[in-house]
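Tokens for chain A. Residues wanted.
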């Protein structure tokens, strides 16, 4: 072997060594390694169509959606949103029964966004998770629904996939305005035909608080968002309680959880807008409560 080719081999080894060291230093990006998935970015677009009444969502369009099945009677009590690999955000009331807070969550089940309610246990490929414990907002008032929020800490870590990704918490730069059209997804049937099956979606415009005050006595404008319709039968149902109201940042197409469904009309008969916990107001509580439980919000 000539001295030139030995030098060449040595040179190649050096280049490889430097490149590998850089990879270790930069690890994200190099070799296709990503530290985690981004929040608020589904692999499938919702389509943004104007829709009339409830509408079956496209696969993977709302990947932060989690179906909550009660361990008491096996019914769908509502939905939650993935905000961390171990933490879901939902309303406090879905984790309570008429006889008070639930003590034992062992038989409760959580399913990912591909769950189909019409075939129940026969959902091939749907991920099942369990509740380790819940953190109800300490000042939750079950009479006027003030602070109707809770965190669910899952037993298993949520595995991110096309069907499962986190949604972003809003910050001061992600505010909603009256007239913005946001979306609510859930497994209850917004059209009233009785069988939702797959995840449904509905588009809901943000309304002035005064519109909700015409329909409801317990409106809490400091902490609630009014959204929906006064006519047209687009509404949410009891099974949609806890579902995230998500709004998209038009500049980067990222989805933010602006609200959590707290109360609305009887979806089958009434034309009444709904009330949503205003997540911008609660962002500090959510983040500090997560941190205290050992889960840092990553975005
Ligand atoms: C809960 O709300 C009801 C109705 O507004 C009110 O009468 C009651 O005092 C509240 N409870 C607490 C503990 O603040
Ligand atoms: C995830 O979605 C992307 C984009 O739609 C697609 O190319 C890919 O095949 C999907 N992966 C799986 C495992 O379905």
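Reply:
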């Amino acid at each position: 072997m000539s001295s030139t080719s030995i030098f060449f081999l040595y040179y190649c080894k050096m280049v490889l060594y430097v490149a590998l060291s850089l990879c270790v230093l930069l690890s994200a990006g190099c070799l296709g390694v990503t530290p985690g998935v981004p929040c608020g970015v589904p692999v499938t677009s919702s389509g943004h169509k104007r829709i009339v009444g409830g509408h079956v969502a496209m696969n993977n369009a709302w990947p932060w959606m989690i179906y909550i099945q009660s361990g008491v009677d096996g019914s769908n009590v509502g939905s939650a949103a993935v905000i961390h690999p171990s933490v879901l955000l939902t309303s406090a009331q879905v984790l309570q029964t008429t006889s008070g807070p639930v003590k034992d969550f062992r038989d409760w089940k959580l399913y990912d966004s591909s769950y189909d309610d019409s075939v129940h246990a026969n959902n091939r490929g749907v991920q099942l998770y369990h509740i380790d414990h819940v953190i109800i907002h300490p000042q939750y008032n079950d009479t006027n629904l003030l602070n109707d929020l809770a965190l669910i800490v899952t037993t298993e870590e949520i595995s991110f996939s096309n069907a499962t990704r986190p949604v972003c918490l809003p910050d001061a730069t992600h505010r909603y305005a009256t007239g913005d059209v946001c979306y609510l997804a859930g497994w209850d049937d917004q059209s009233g035909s009785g069988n939702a099956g797959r995840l449904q979606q509905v588009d809901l415009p943000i309304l002035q608080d005064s519109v909700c005050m015409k329909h409801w006595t317990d409106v809490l404008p400091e902490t609630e968002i009014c959204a929906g319709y006064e006519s047209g039968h687009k509404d949410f149902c009891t099974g949609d309680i806890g579902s995230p109201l998500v709004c998209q940042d038009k500049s980067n197409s990222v989805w933010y959880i602006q609200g959590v469904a707290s109360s609305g009309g009887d979806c089958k008969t009434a034309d009444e807008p709904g009330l949503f916990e205003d997540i911008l107001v609660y962002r500090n509580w959510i983040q500090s409560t997560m941190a205290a439980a050992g889960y840092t919000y990553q975005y």
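The chain has two domains: 66-166+282-292, 181-281. Helices lie at 3-26, 209-215, 279-292.
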